[in-house]
Amino acid sequence: MRRKHSNSKSQFVQCSSASQSGQTLLEVALLTPLLLLLLLGVIEMGRYAYIGILVGNAAHAGAMYGSENVDNSGNAPGIQTAADNDFVNNGQSLSNLTVSSTTSCGCDNGGTISGLTNACSTKVNPTIADTAAACSTGGGHWVIMCNVEASGTFSSLFSYPGIPSSIKIDRTATMRVAQ
Q: Which uninterrupted H or E stretch holds 69?
């Protein structure tokens, strides 16, 4: 009799083991789509962050070029080329990037810039030389800033309900021009 009892116990263990493996298979089947959706979301967020970093780096590269000297600060095509080169060197298409640049100038007196204007050239503002001289006389330092704004487009791999398939990313870099 003992033997039958041990057989029935082993049958019970086999039945329980088969039931648990079926339950595990069902749980995996139900959770796999959710886990894949979560994985795709993480990948898309990583791609968005990466494009944002590349657009910021392109703006920074343009501002670096513009801040090298006074001549470069007004050289919009040169600034555009510097930003484009940085963006392309990271494997991106130029059709996804737009760059604009401006210069501004003012009197830096103790870390506070006053009289900030975008009319920094004598062609646009004939009195700019007098303004810069007055700044120096007053104990300040005349500064020129190069501002570069880069805009890129992030395109998602898939269409998600309620989320646009492409998102515009804007980044700005401002640097003081070496004088």
A: none
Q: Which residue from 111, 85, 113, 112 is spatially nearest to 99, judged by alpha carbons?
A: 85
pTM for this structure? 0.77
Q: How far is CA 129 from CA 3, 21, 146, 168, in A?
A: 109, 84, 19, 40
Q: What are phi and psi of 25, to 5 degrees?
A: -60, -40
Report the first-to-last Cα separation within the chain, whole angstroms: 103
Model confidence pLDDT, tens digit, residues 32-73: 999 999 999 999 999 999 999 999 999 999 999 999 998 899
**Amino acid, res. 124:** V
Residue owning tokens 């001289």: 133
Q: Are 48 and 159 in contact (CB under 8 A)?
A: no
| 3-class DSSP assignment, residue 34 | helix
CA dist list (Å): 124 to 37, 140, 142 = 56, 23, 17
DSSP3 helix / strand / coil % (the chain, rounded to 5) = 55, 25, 20
* 4, β-bridge pairs: none
Give tens-digit pLDDT for 113-151. Answer: 888 788 777 777 888 888 888 888 888 888 999 999 999
Return the SS3 of 10: helix
